[in-house]
Specification:
Two copies of one chain form a homodimer. With 248 residues, chain A is α+β, with helices and mostly antiparallel strands. Chain A has one domain: Glutamine Phosphoribosylpyrophosphate, subunit 1, domain 1 (4-Layer Sandwich). Helix content of chain A is 34%, strand content 27%. The first copy, chain A, contains five helices and twelve strands. Chain A has a five-stranded antiparallel sheet with strand order 10-1-2-11-12, with helices on one face. In chain A, a hairpin with a 7-residue loop joins strand 11 and strand 12. The longest helix of chain A has 23 residues. The relative contact order of chain A is 0.20. At the A-B interface, helix 3, helix 4, strand 12 and helix 5 of A face helix 3, helix 4, strand 12 and helix 5 of B.
């Protein structure tokens, strides 16, 4: 499984992913699910992936190949595409193509299909900052002022905190805290989501990776935050009074 | 959808269910999902249901019919069964039988299957208090000291709070608060779980329903608790400091 989350705020984009990959329950590995494509000051694209590792790795490799191609054009390279919407279209098309190709291979021996979805965020110089969720079929939705966050993978455990504290006006600093606490709840409840974590920040109009952190297992700041949140929840819980109903 | 949760504590059993039933997204109704079978002072059994309404209603009707039968025996009536384990076996067998019968009917016109699962808690005089989760196939698991709560239906949103605050030693009063807050998180995130709620408490060795409450939409105590929890979460969130990493 996987948990990835992206926030689109007035101040910028905050993206967080875990790194656990499993084939069955007894084959667990660490793979980075965050991919950064960057031409600093001109364009930055961050992609988070969930789903079949074979599909996501192949898709990212193909996107890189298209960027490196001497004949790369606006239509083929996400580093040349005219807009972030065009970037999302290129990634979606590649994702669907690779998934179809791999599913075709798999179908010879099983009914399994390979699919994946991604969160894509970024900005090109002179353009708007945008954040998309791209589905396995290649179509996409976009973060908006009403719903400024997108999630893929095991999204349920970490959603309540986002619902309660994240809005378009949330500061980058609070947003970091929100995605880390959202991940913390997910890590506690689903073993197939695991450390280390990758955290990326892109501030508005920076058009580069403003901040990147790999948060390792046992990271003291993350551990302290996790403990403080547990304590805050328990303190909050103990302070709440449920008035005795009439028949108590 | 549905959310039902049961807690087995030293002080007793706490069970909570929602009442929303939907056929598709445009056909929503209120149905009670909590069934109480009681011979006060002798035996009390509380059942929470999730899944196909046709399966759960038919199963409960058959269980009642078996109780009312003049020839009811230890093997057929949950009010005569020797132990709570035997009760769970009778309910599991009936649930699987009804599901199979209904799926057989459905299969004539569609690939749909009717299935359901239940949480069953209770105590007979002289016996231990027990809490089971019975799967659609009729097999079951039981709450233990390590994991004193069981959930069916939309269980993910409401699990983090239970993981953090519920143990075997939790008081009935705190347990009520915990299941109501767990439900509150679920109601916020999944529209197919809805008010009113049914809350039942069975204190150890009471062998009767010690407390029952229907909590209606707009219930002032529940609304106040929900607000207080939101505030506690936001206050807790704002007090947590994420130390700036080295590269900030």
């Amino acid at each position: 499984m996987t948990y990835c989350v992206g926030l689109l705020l007035k101040e910028g984009i905050v993206m967080l992913s875990d790194t656990r990959t499993n084939a069955g329950l007894d084959n667990i590995s660490v793979y980075k699910k965050m991919y950064v494509f960057e031409n600093p000051g001109e364009r930055v694209i961050v992609i988070l992936t969930a789903g079949s590792l074979s599909v996501t790795q192949t898709t990212m490799a193909k996107l890189q190949e298209a960027i490196d191609d001497d004949d790369a054009t606006e239509e083929t390279s996400i580093m040349k595409a005219r807009t972030m919407l065009d970037v999302a279209e290129i990634v979606g098309a590649e994702l669907a193509r690779v998934a179809e190709d791999i599913s075709e291979k798999l179908s010879r021996n099983s009914q399994a299909r390979g699919t994946a979805s991604v969160i894509l965020g970024g900005q090109r110089r002179g353009g708007a900052m945008r954040l998309f969720l791209i589905y396995p079929e290649g179509n996409h939705i976009e973060a908006t002022a009403d719903t400024p966050f997108l999630q893929i993978g095991e999204h349920k455990y970490g959603k309540p905190i986002l619902d309660r504290v994240v809005s378009l006006d949330t500061s980058i600093s609070d947003a970091k805290k929100a995605v880390l606490l959202s991940m913390d709840s997910t890590l506690r409840s689903n073993l197939s989501v695991g450390m280390p974590l990758d955290l990326a920040i892109v501030r508005y109009d920076d058009c580069r990776l403003s901040e990147y952190r790999r948060i390792e297992n046992g990271d003291p700041v993350f551990a302290a935050m996790s403990l403080a949140w547990s304590k805050a929840l328990r303190d909050g819980f103990s302070q709440i009074v449920v008035e005795p109903p009439a028949n108590d």
